[in-house]
C-alpha cells in the first residue's frame, strides 16, 4: 500500500497589518485641504467676490468724490459724513457685519454638508476610515479660511481707500481696524458654526438660514425685550468699536431701553454659541442616516 | 492643495500682512506724508500731563461760508478790536493765523481756587520785531529761560484788589511762524519741551486716542479730563456729585457751509454710560418736542443724533446747524428787535 505523503503545509500568507485610521485632527486637516480648493474655485466664489467687492467699489467712489472736492455732500444716516474713519465704521457695521457676514455664513455654512448630500458624494466621504465629525470640522475650517481670505483683505483695501479722506488719520484709526478684523473673523466663525448645524439638520437649510439671518435677526433687533438675546447680531453689537448712529425718534426709545452687553460678556456668549453649534453639527452628521434620493 | 489655491492664499495673506505692517508703523511713529500720527505738529509743544487740549483751524473757520453768515451777528466793537490788532502788531486774524493749539495744565488734585495755567500756540505769519516792540512799549519785561527769550507782562496792578497775580507771557517758538502765549510757568514747560528730554502729549495714549477720534473731519476740537472742566465751572454741588461718573470729554466741529458738531463724554463704567445715555436721550426728546413749534430751531433739533460706543463707555451727541437755520435765527432776531 502506497502511502501518499502529505505535502508539507505551505505557509499561509499573513495579511499585512491594516493601516491605522488617521487621528481626528489629521482627518480634519485632510478634509480641509481637499475642501478649500473646491470651495475657492466653485461657482459660489463668483457670488462671494461680487459681495465683497461692493464695499470696495463704494469706497473707491467715496475716495474719488472726496478727491474732487465734493466729499462734504456724502451723507449717511441722515447727517453729513466727511471723516474717513466714520465712513469706514459705517461700512463695517452696515455692510459687513449686518449683511456680508450673515450672507456668507448662510450660503457657505449651510452648503458644507448639504452640497455633498445634494451631489450624492457624501458616501465617498463617509466610506473613508475617518470620523464623521472630522468631515464637518475640516469642511468648517475650509469655509473659515476661504471666506476670511476674501473678506479680510477687502476690509484692508477699504480701510486704506476710505480712512485718509476728510482728514482721517490711518494711525489713529489703526486700533479700530484691528478690532474690526478680529470682529469679522469672530462673526464668520460664529455664523458659520450655526449654519453648519442648520445645513446638517434641516431639509431646506438655505431657506431656514435666510429666514434666520434676514427675518428673525433683523426683525427682533428692533423689538425691545430679551428676545434679541437669541440672535448673534446682539452679541456682535456689544463688540463693535464704532459708534452706531441712532438718529430717529424710534431709536431714541430703543436707547432708553438699551441693554447692550459688555464686551467680555458678548465674547463669552459668542464663544458658547460657536462651540455649541459646531459640536451639534458634528454630532448631527455623526448620528444621522443620510438617504440619498434617486 | 493646488498651486493656484496656494497662490491665492499667499496673495490674501500678503495683502493683510502689508496692510497691518503699514498701519502698525503709522500707529507707532508715522510715515511722513502718508500716515502721520494724529493731531497737528504743534502737539509737540504740549506736555504729557496736559489736562485739556484744543485745536482750531483759524484759516478754515475764517474762510467758511458759516463765518461770513455769523459776521452779521458781530458787534461793531468786535470788528474795531480786530482793526486795532491789525494796526498795532500787524496781525490780521482773518488771514495771518493758520491754526491754534491751546492747552490747560492742571494737577488732578488741584482745586477750583488754584491758579489756572495754560497757553495757546499759534502758527501763521507774524512780524516778530513789531510784536516784541509793541510788548516793550506796553511795559512788558524781557526775560530769559534756558537760553530762550520770554516777554512777561505783569498785571499785578490791575488785579491788586483781589491780591492775585495775573501774568501773561509770550515767546516765539519759530521766528515769525510759531508763537506761544500764556502764563509764564506754562511757557517754561513749552521751552522745557523744546530744549530738554521732556515727554509731549503724544506719549499720553489716552489723550491721543481721544484726539485721534475727534480730529478727522473737524476743523475745531477740544479734548480733556472732565474733572478739570467741572472744577473750573463752579457748578452746584448737586451737579458736581454726579460728575465723577464722567472721566473724559471731547467735542469737535466742522464748520463750512454749516456747522456739524459732536460732543462726547466717556463714563467711568458701563452702568454710568447707560444712565448718562438715558438722561441725554430724555433731554433730546424734550428738545425736539419744544422745538417742533419753532421752525428756526426745528431743523437743529431734528438733526440731533445720539450714539453710544459700548466698547469704551462713550456717549456722544452730534447735531447740524445748516446755513438755512442760521438765516432763520437771524430773521427771528430781527423780528424781536423790531419796535412793536
Largest interface: A-B, 59 and 58 residues
Number of helices of chain A: 11
- Helix-strand sequence of chain A: HHEEHHHHHHHHH
Q: Helix-strand pattern of chain B, N to C?
A: HEHHHEEHEEEEHHEHHEEHHEEH
Radius of gyration of chain B: 24 Å
Low-confidence stretches of chain B: 157-161
Describe the protein's architecture and organization.
The complex is a heterodimer of chains A (294) and B (340). By secondary structure, chain A is mainly α. Chain A has one domain (24-287). Chain A has eleven helices and two strands; from the N terminus they run ααββααααααααα. Chain A has helices spanning 24-40, 44-67, 84-109, 111-118, 122-126, 132-162, 170-201, 205-220, 233-237, 249-256, 263-287; strands at 75-76, 79-80. In chain A, strands 1-2 form a two-stranded antiparallel ribbon. The radius of gyration of chain A is 26 Å and the shape is elongated. Chain A starts with 23 loop residues before the first helix and ends in a 7-residue tail after the last helix. With 340 residues, chain B is an alpha+beta fold. Chain B is 41% helix and 26% strand. Chain B contains twelve helices and twelve strands. Chain B has helices at residues 3-27, 58-63, 65-70, 76-89, 128-137, 184-195, 205-214, 226-232, 237-240, 270-291, 295-303, 323-337, and strands at 50-56, 97-105, 117-124, 141-145, 148-154, 167-174, 178-182, 220-225, 246-255, 259-267, 305-309, 314-321. The model of chain B is unreliable at 157-161 (pLDDT under 50). Chains A and B meet through helix 1, strand 2, helix 3, helix 6 and helix 7 of A and helix 1, helix 7, helix 10, strand 11 and strand 12 of B.
Amino acid at each position: 500500500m502506497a502511502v501518499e505523503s502529505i505535502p508539507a503545509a505551505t505557509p499561509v500568507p499573513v495579511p499585512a497589518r491594516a493601516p491605522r485610521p488617521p487621528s481626528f485632527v489629521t482627518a480634519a486637516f485632510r478634509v480641509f485641504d481637499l475642501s478649500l480648493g473646491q470651495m475657492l474655485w466653485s461657482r459660489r466664489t463668483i457670488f462671494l467676490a461680487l459681495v465683497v467687492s461692493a464695499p470696495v467699489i463704494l469706497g473707491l467712489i467715496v475716495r474719488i468724490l472726496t478727491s474732487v472736492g465734493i466729499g462734504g455732500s456724502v451723507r449717511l444716516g441722515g447727517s453729513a459724513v466727511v471723516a474717513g474713519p466714520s465712513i469706514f465704521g459705517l461700512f463695517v457695521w452696515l455692510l459687513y457685519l449686518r449683511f456680508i457676514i450673515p450672507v456668507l455664513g448662510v450660503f457657505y455654512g449651510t452648503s458644507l454638508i448639504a452640497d455633498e448630500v445634494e451631489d450624492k458624494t457624501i458616501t465617498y466621504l463617509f466610506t473613508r476610515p475617518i470620523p464623521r465629525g472630522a468631515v464637518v470640522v475640516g469642511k468648517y475650517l475650509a469655509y473659515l479660511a476661504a471666506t476670511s481670505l476674501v473678506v479680510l483683505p477687502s476690509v484692508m483695501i477699504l480701510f486704506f481707500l476710505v480712512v485718509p479722506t476728510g482728514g482721517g488719520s490711518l494711525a489713529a484709526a489703526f486700533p479700530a481696524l484691528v478690532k474690526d478684523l478680529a470682529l469679522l473673523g469672530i462673526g464668520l466663525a460664529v455664523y458659520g458654526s450655526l449654519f453648519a448645524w442648520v445645513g446638517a439638520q434641516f431639509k431646506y437649510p438655505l431657506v431656514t438660514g435666510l429666514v434666520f439671518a434676514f427675518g428673525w435677526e433683523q426683525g427682533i433687533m428692533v423689538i425691545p425685550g430679551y428676545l434679541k438675546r437669541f440672535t448673534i447680531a446682539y452679541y456682535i453689537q456689544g463688540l463693535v468699536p464704532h459708534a452706531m448712529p441712532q438718529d430717529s425718534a424710534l431709536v431714541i426709545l430703543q436707547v432708553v431701553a438699551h441693554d447692550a452687553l459688555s464686551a467680555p460678556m458678548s465674547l463669552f456668549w459668542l464663544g458658547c454659541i460657536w462651540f455649541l453649534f459646531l459640536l451639534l453639527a458634528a454630532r448631527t452628521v455623526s448620528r444621522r442616516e443620510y438617504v440619498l434620493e434617486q | 492643495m493646488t498651486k493656484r489655491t496656494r497662490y491665492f492664499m499667499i496673495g490674501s495673506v500678503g495683502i493683510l500682512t502689508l496692510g497691518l505692517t503699514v498701519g502698525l508703523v503709522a500707529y507707532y511713529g508715522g510715515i511722513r506724508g502718508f500716515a502721520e500720527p494724529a493731531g497737528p505738529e504743534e502737539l509737540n509743544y504740549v506736555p504729557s500731563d496736559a489736562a485739556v487740549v484744543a485745536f482750531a483751524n483759524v484759516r478754515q473757520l475764517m474762510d467758511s461760508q458759516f463765518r461770513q453768515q455769523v459776521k452779521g451777528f458781530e458787534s461793531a466793537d468786535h470788528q474795531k478790536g480786530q482793526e486795532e490788532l491789525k494796526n498795532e502788531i500787524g496781525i490780521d486774524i482773518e488771514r495771518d493765523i493758520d491754526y491754534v493749539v491751546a492747552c490747560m495744565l492742571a494737577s488732578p488734585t488741584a482745586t477750583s481756587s488754584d491758579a489756572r495755567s495754560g497757553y495757546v500756540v499759534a502758527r501763521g505769519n507774524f512780524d516778530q520785531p513789531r510784536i516784541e516792540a509793541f510788548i516793550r512799549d506796553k511795559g512788558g519785561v524781557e526775560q530769559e529761560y534756558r537760553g530762550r527769550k520770554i516777554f512777561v507782562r505783569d498785571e499785578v496792578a490791575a488785579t491788586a484788589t483781589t491780591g492775585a497775580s495775573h501774568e501773561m507771557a509770550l515767546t516765539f517758538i519759530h521766528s515769525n511762524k510759531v508763537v506761544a502765549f500764556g502764563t509764564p510757568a506754562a511757557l517754561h514747560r513749552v521751552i522745557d519741551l523744546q530744549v530738554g528730554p521732556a515727554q509731549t502729549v503724544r506719549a499720553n495714549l489716552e489723550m491721543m486716542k481721544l484726539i485721534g477720534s475727534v480730529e478727522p473731519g473737524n476743523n475745531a476740537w477740544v479734548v480733556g479730563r472732565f474733572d478739570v472742566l467741572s472744577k473750573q465751572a463752579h457748578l452746584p454741588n448737586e451737579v458736581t456729585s454726579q460728575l465723577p461718573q464722567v472721566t473724559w470729554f471731547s467735542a469737535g466741529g466742522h464748520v463750512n457751509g454749516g456747522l456739524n458738531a459732536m460732543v462726547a463724554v466717556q463714563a467711568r463704567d458701563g452702568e454710568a454710560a447707560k444712565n448718562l445715555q438715558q438722561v441725554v436721550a430724555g433731554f433730546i426728546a424734550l428738545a425736539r418736542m419744544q422745538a417742533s413749534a419753532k421752525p428756526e430751531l426745528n431743523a437743529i433739533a431734528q438733526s440731533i443724533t445720539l450714539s453710544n460706543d459700548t466698547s469704551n463707555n462713550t456717549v456722544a451727541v452730534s447735531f447740524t446747524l445748516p446755513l438755512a437755520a442760521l438765516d432763520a435765527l437771524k430773521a427771528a432776531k430781527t423780528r424781536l428787535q423790531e419796535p412793536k
